[in-house]
Design brief:
Blueprint: H1 3-7, E1 17-18, E2 24-25, E3 43-44, E4 58-59, E5 62-63, H2 79-83, H3 86-94, E6 100-101, E7 106-107, H4 110-117, H5 124-137, H6 149-161, H7 163-174, E8 176-177, E9 179-183, H8 195-201, E10 204-209, H9 222-231, H10 238-254, E11 257-262, H11 288-309, E12 313-317, H12 331-336, E13 342-346, H13 351-360, E14 364-367, H14 371-374, H15 376-386, E15 395-396, H16 404-429, H17 433-452
Parallel strand pairs: 3-8, 9-10, 10-11, 11-12, 12-13, 13-14, 14-15
Antiparallel strand pairs: 1-2, 4-5, 6-7
């Protein structure tokens, strides 16, 4: 089955036809939402976490690809590794199922995992994995013949042994483009001359996470100390911190960094206040108030450097830590740093608030990434809210996936939901077929080209 045949089925809506052997068959009647789903328009993968799998390995606070250029699997990669990714594993644990075998630190057996996953068969995370794995390997994981399990495991492992070649192959098949991954500051201290790092960097760009820097006030911090030795500056006060950050940003830029990213919204508000340097304690046993002042100062110092470079700044918004992940306080950063494009990631459930900021500030944008993985209806709600409210050049539609297979599946959901939404706009506003496709190209691809400055516009 080719890509177009699969995408034109009713699979995403749940109307799957299962052929012998566990493959998903195409429907015989015409799909109700037309046939193409913008297949000729690549989805710009502007925010991804590909490689966040147990087989590739972890470090405290993340997965090896976030820290090591060209990170490769440390053991065999199996179907269960793809299914027990961080997102699906978190959902399973929230439902009382631990996807890891505590004795061997390996995922639970396939049959047990599939039985647990049946409770999530309508969830966007599982839909994305199911669709992407079917596109990549030709099997429906909920109806897989047990005799085929060893074969698909062999195929997956062979692909992951050639991880970066495989990623590019599936990107082409799923019409994905321009991979950007969020990495830790230490990533830029790594070996970029290894064969795997060169292969990865041939099609991958990065944005640097700045949230780890906001913990560098601690007296004992090995991550800070390692960076300080490499960069030749120990950040102990405002002057040395500015020098430290300047060197770090220069090094990141040298190795292909396109911008910065933060996820403070997981643990605190997005209210980053300008702080006088004389009131900041830069190291020691800080009080809660002192920690906030330090974090605020560091974020503003990073924004100053991003503003100078005209770098975009991806900010995690919503999904966790409600109501402190409300994006409205970001207006302060938007006004203070006009050359820094703020890209609000996810945004659910703060759809109206995010829309308000995007239409009120010329340098504020929205990326719907993770919405189709959390719940396809979140994306439907968002497009219903935003398409009639904010400028069309302010929306990008990435995936935020942990594997290329998940990204392929999530992009299918995104295409279908966008098609539904633009069909409604055609009936309500009278836009032409040509205008519809130009809008689709903007949202799926071209807007991200303009924000991140790589690639060329489509259509």
């Amino acid at each position: 089955m080719d890509r177009k045949e699969f995408l034109s089925t009713g699979a995403i809506l749940g109307a799957m036809t299962i052929a012998p052997g566990g493959k998903i068959a195409g429907q015989t009647k015409e799909d109700p939402i037309e046939d193409d789903l913008y297949l000729d328009i690549p989805v710009f993968c502007s925010h991804e976490h590909w490689g966040s799998l147990l087989s590739i390995g972890q470090f405290p606070g993340g997965f090896n690809p976030d820290l090591i250029p060209g990170a490769l699997p440390q053991r065999e990669t199996t179907l269960v590794d793809l299914l027990a990714d961080p997102y699906m594993a978190g959902s399973l644990m929230g439902n009382g199922v631990n996807p890891l075998n505590k004795e061997k630190d390996r995922p639970i057996a396939y049959a047990e995992l599939i039985e647990a996953l049946k409770n999530f068969r309508l969830k966007g995370t599982f839909l994305s994995l199911r669709l992407g794995i079917n596109l990549a390997y030709g099997y429906d994981i909920l109806n897989l013949d047990p005799d085929k399990l060893s074969q698909i495991n062999i195929e997956i492992d062979n692909n992951y042994r050639n991880l970066f070649g495989w990623s590019q192959k599936l990107m082409k098949k799923a019409s994905l483009a321009h991979l950007i991954r969020a990495v830790h500051p230490e990533f830029y201290l790594g070996d970029f001359n290894s064969p795997s790092a060169r292969e990865e960097s041939a099609y991958t760009s990065t944005v640097m996470r700045i949230d780890p820097l906001t913990d560098f006030w601690k007296e004992e911090n090995s991550r800070r100390d390692k960076l300080a030795v490499t960069l030749g500056t120990d950040p102990v006060d405002a002057k040395s911190w500015r020098e430290f950050l300047e060197k770090l940003f220069n090094r990141a830029e040298e190795y292909g960094c396109l911008g910065i990213k933060q996820l403070q919204a997981y643990s605190r508000s997005l209210d980053f206040e300008p702080v006088p340097e004389k009131s900041v304690v830069f190291r020691g046993d800080l009080s809660k108030e002192e920690k906030k002042k330090f974090q605020d100062w560091v974020v503003h110092a990073c924004c100053e450097l991003a503003n100078q470079r005209h770098w975009p700044h991806q900010v995690h918004v919503g999904t966790h830590n409600h109501p402190l992940s409300n994006p409205l306080p970001l207006s302060l950063l938007a006004n203070r740093y006009p050359n820094q494009k703020i890209v609000m990631l996810h945004c659910w459930p703060y759809l109206e608030e995010a829309g308000f900021l995007a239409q009120a500030h010329p340098n504020v944008y929205i990326d719907t990434c993770w919405q189709p993985i959390l719940n396809p209806d979140f994306l439907r709600q968002s497009l219903h809210t935003w398409l009639g409210y904010i400028p069309l050049n302010k929306i990008t539609m990435s995936n935020d996936s942990t594997s290329v297979e998940m990204a392929a599946g999530a992009s299918m959901i995104t295409r279908r939901v966008l098609k539904e939404s633009l069909n409604k706009q055609k009936s309500q506003t009278g836009i032409t077929d040509h205008e519809e496709r130009r809008i689709a190209a903007q949202l799926l691809h071209n807007n991200a080209v303009e924000i991140y400055g790589i690639g060329t516009n489509h259509l």
